Amino acid sequence: xxxxxxxxxxxxxxxxxxxxxxxxxxxxxxxxxxxxxxxxxxxxxxxxxxxxxxxxxxxxxxxxxxxxxxxxxxxxxxxxxxxxxxxxxxxxxxxxx
Length: 97
Fold this sequence. Notes:
Elements: H1 7-17, H2 22-32, H3 35-52, H4 57-64, H5 68-80, H6 84-96
């Protein structure tokens, strides 16, 4: 995966990390992504949340209309990835308290 990390990608991450509001983040993502890309990313995050809640693939697929292949990919990232989904879910749940 090291070949994937480039200066341009690092610049993107730094740019996103520097956005100081949800509104600013929304505007940036709406400019840089297609509607389909935004929908796909938001669905993946929703799938991760549901997996963390213990839902099974069939329940998640019925609720989100996401394929079981996508659910499997998200599940793999949850268990063997870099921890990004879990960090995001923790931030979401910490914000709800």
